[in-house]
Design a protein that fits this description.
Length: 310
């Protein structure tokens, strides 16, 4: 199937499940097409889990869901050695991370130790248990959800964990017309249950390879680095964008161009994807935070200050 038809079919199918949120659907697809991980941060009930499950069904790949809780242990995710009583030997029992799509639901409710068990998997597509390394299948991506409004009993994700997510996005409340349409669409059936695979595993891998081939001219890459470097010296920030963030912006811009039907990246692609790619990688100084600034406002100001190549 031609790539543009595949993208159109995925958009239509996912928007039929998550009504009125085409931008959230596009950002999630960009994260996956760029071989990255996606963080869905929003209040309860707006469709975070629904979007994650719809993505897994649309791609026709294996899916695992882990509900993160304070008593969850690293071995509950990665797996561990299990004793076979009849043989008296230990064998490795794979955990839910051995999948294609891992939904880490309410990731910030697990302890930092358990959160950290995902770092190796997200960065290197492998897990190490008792000194033995086990590779994960390809594709592998994590879709994590968290509720930013309820901090009781949660452990905020550290910067190193946030840096592993290619994009962070919010879904937000639907418009009145879309919410009304949702009520009647779900009166008798669940659109998620009716969703069929729209893309095979092989097609997804092919798309990810195609995204890597999208051309980025040196002048556009230099524009990306100018944005990143500006974040590192911004007086409102105590932490700027890391080199991993530079690479994330590069790959996300490639996926943004691919979603737009082009085989080259423009500065407009960089500007469009920068907030979702960079906002969770910076840290505001206390005085900036107390002064009412937000990460989005700082990134928008940086984008406005950095000269756009022509």
């Amino acid at each position: 199937m031609p790539h543009h038809e595949l993208v159109r079919g995925l958009r239509e199918g996912l928007c039929g499940v998550l009504r009125g949120k085409p931008l959230a659907v596009d950002l999630a697809l960009i994260g996956i097409f760029a071989s990255g991980h996606v963080l869905l941060e929003d209040v309860p009930g707006v469709g975070k889990t629904t979007l994650a499950k719809a993505l897994a069904k649309a791609f026709g790949v294996r899916f695992s869901r882990v509900q993160f809780t304070p008593d969850l242990l690293p071995g509950d995710i990665t797996g561990g050695l299990v004793l076979a009583p009849d043989k008296g030997t230990f064998s490795f029992h794979r955990g839910p991370v051995f999948t294609n799509v891992l939904l880490a639901d309410e990731i910030n409710r697990a302890s930092p130790r358990t959160q950290a068990s995902l770092l190796e998997a997200m960065n290197e597509a492998q897990v190490t248990v008792d000194g033995e390394t086990h590779s994960l299948d390809s594709p592998f991506f994590v879709i994590a959800t968290q509720n930013p409004a309820d901090y009781q009993g949660t452990y905020p994700l550290p910067e190193a964990q946030l840096d592993r997510f290619l994009v962070r996005l919010s879904i937000g409340y639907p418009d009145p017309a879309d919410e009304l349409a949702m009520l009647f669409a779900r009166q008798h059936d669940d659109p998620l249950a009716a969703l069929q695979a729209l893309c095979s595993r092989a097609e997804l891998l092919d798309v990810q390879r195609a995204v890597r081939e999208v051309e980025v001219k040196p002048i556009v890459a230099s524009y990306m680095l100018a944005i990143v470097r500006a974040s590192r010296v911004d007086p409102a920030l105590s932490l700027g964008v890391s080199p991993r963030g530079s690479l994330a912006l590069f790959r996300a811009a490639q996926a943004q161009a691919f979603m737009s039907g082009r085989d080259y990246v423009t500065p407009e692609d960089v500007q469009a994807i920068a907030p979702a790619t960079l906002c969770h990688r910076i840290a505001l100084r206390d005085e900036a935070r107390y002064g009412g600034s937000s990460d989005r406002e700082v990134v928008a100001r940086i984008l406005g200050a950095v000269r756009v190549p022509v």
